[in-house]
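Researcher: Good morning. I'm working through a list of sequences from a screen, and I'd like to move beyond sequence-only analysis. For each chain I'm collecting a predicted structure so we can compare shapes side by side. This is the next one on the list. No need for commentary yet; just the structure.
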Amino acid sequence: MVTIDRRAIPDAAVESRWQAADGWDIRRIDWRADSPKGSILFLPGRGDIYEKYLETLHGFWADGWSVTASDWRGQGGSGRFSDEAHIGHVDDFATWIADLAGFWKRWKAETSAPHVLIGHSMGGHLALRALAERAVDPDAAILSAPMLGIRAGGVPSWIGHAYAWLMNRMGDPTRAAWKVSEKPGASATLRHKLLTHDKARYDDEPGWWELRPELKMGPASWGWVERAMASTRRLERPGMLEAIDTPILILATTADQLVDTKRIVADAARLPDAELKLFGDEAAHELLREADPVRGQVIAAIDDFLERRLK
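Model: Good morning. Structure tokens for this chain:
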């Protein structure tokens, strides 16, 4: 594996900005290979920053890929939807799909084929929805712990959605849906256990918050929760996933405390050309930032999939 300083932008990478159709300013980072074997676009999760994935993205570049990652509008270094910078809000997931569609078109034109789309968590959900809605057309896609359903203690999605809708009607949709960490009831001190068994990799995120305080984000808003549930339920419609013919690798873990692994397994079975690699208690939500024994398997699975499916 390639070793880098995970708290510094690699010399080979270039940070810049791109503008969405309405002029919104969005961050990106690029590694350009001299004679690329293809191009990868990486989409991070809710509240994420691309700095968390420098190790993985740089590794893909070292392996011969041109690599790009972009923050989502409204988080990371791409502004906010509300006046409270530490709350993750969105008006509708369709806004992110539109941004992705626009960026994909220009990014595909400026990079070498084959084109690969990788999404983690919320990024994985948005990648799959964009595929279902024909907003992107990658040669292959990889979804890491995709947010195809939100872990809600067995509560049916329609009940959770109805509750979130009610909470939006009872107060400001931009207010925080919980206090700290990544889910209601989880303490900040145990947050790393929800994400990765590798404490050093976990500490990279707060380390970047110290270096770049403007990147920090905390809980989601009630508006985000309701729109997230609406978007995941959208993919339940018959024919949505069944019409996707893109080769897809899905990586997930049965120990995930944030996304619904049962929903991931069920949705993988609906996809015409999907491969599912499932981990157990050895892996938490952030598979690309797990301890080396798991992360090594994740990277190997990605490499093998791309080698087989992009011939």
